[in-house]
């Protein structure tokens, strides 16, 4: 693992965010069981033993506060990169913060900004945990890494692989913004799918074809035109198939 990172391990906690926000950048907080984890819009995140439940703290420039909002995409690319050597069929990123295998959810990402100079990337990956118990309790059917590959890495090894890929892609991002990882993002989305982007005032339908440099989703309309939906306004983007 990159020498930048330091690791704090606990057995059980309410949320790794609670611990991580008190620690410096380049710290990873991980636990075996998370009792009050949460996802986007405060949805409950189940963090049972056997999964990777961790927060990765990164430094951010207080003069560029909006950049931290792009970190879910940076982290998504990092997870895809970390798992790419295992050749998982159907592995893909779903805007803005989920890693799926076909239509089943493998991992989720949530980013907090506990201070002006630090962001904390919360990552949950189903590895060996009992995902069968989650069927019907989550909006997406779950899957786990142990069922997808032979020779599944340990949770600690996966934590390290993801840490190294976060550091690498974060450095690219600092140097060139989202454009620096644009080709990785393009391949991470997988095939174009019909979606509806839901905002407070609108429902925009189209085929998801990628993102702008500010992370906003681009949809291709039935007439062939494209429309960018400002990412900050999107409450949910739902895949239609």
Automatic annotation (TrEMBL):
Limits of the BPL/LPL catalytic domain: 1-174
GO terms of molecular function: biotin--[biotin carboxyl-carrier protein] ligase activity
GO CC term (a single one): cytoplasm
InterPro entries hit by this protein: aa-tRNA-synth_II/BPL/LPL (IPR045864), Biotin_CoA_COase_ligase (IPR004408), BPL_LPL_catalytic (IPR004143)
Keyword annotations of the record: Ligase
Superkingdom, natural source: Bacteria
UniProt feature coiled coil, ranges: none
UniProt enzyme class: ligase
Enzyme Commission code(s) on record: 6.3.4.15
Keyword Transit peptide included in the entry's annotation: no
Pfam families: BPL_LplA_LipB (PF03099)
Organism in which the protein naturally occurs: Candidatus Akkermansia intestinigallinarum
Protein name: Biotin--[acetyl-CoA-carboxylase] ligase
């Amino acid at each position: 693992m990159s020498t930048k990172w330091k690791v704090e391990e606990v057995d059980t906690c309410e949320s790794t965010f609670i611990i991580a926000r008190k620690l410096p950048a380049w710290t990873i907080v991980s636990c075996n069981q998370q009792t009050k984890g949460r996802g986007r819009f405060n949805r409950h995140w189940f963090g049972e033993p056997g999964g990777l439940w961790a927060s990765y703290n990164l430094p951010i420039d207080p003069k560029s506060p909006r950049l931290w909002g792009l970190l879910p995409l940076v982290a998504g690319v990092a997870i895809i990169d970390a798992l790419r050597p295992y050749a998982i069929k159907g592995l893909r990123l779903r805007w803005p913060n989920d890693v799926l295998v076909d239509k089943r959810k493998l991992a989720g990402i949530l980013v907090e900004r506990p201070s002006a100079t630090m962001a904390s990337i919360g990552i949950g990956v189903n590895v060996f945990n009992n995902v069968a118990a989650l069927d019907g309790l989550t909006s997406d059917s779950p899957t786990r890494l142990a069922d997808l590959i032979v020779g599944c890495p340990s949770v600690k090894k996966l934590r390290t692989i993801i840490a190294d890929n976060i550091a690498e892609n974060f450095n690219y991002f600092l140097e060139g913004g989202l454009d620096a990882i644009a080709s990785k993002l393009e391949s991470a989305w997988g095939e174009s799918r019909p979606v509806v982007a839901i905002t407070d005032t609108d429902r925009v339908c189209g085929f998801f074809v990628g993102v702008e440099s500010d992370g906003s989703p681009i949809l291709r309309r039935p007439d062939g035109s494209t429309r960018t939906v400002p990412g900050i306004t999107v409450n949910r983007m739902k895949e239609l198939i």
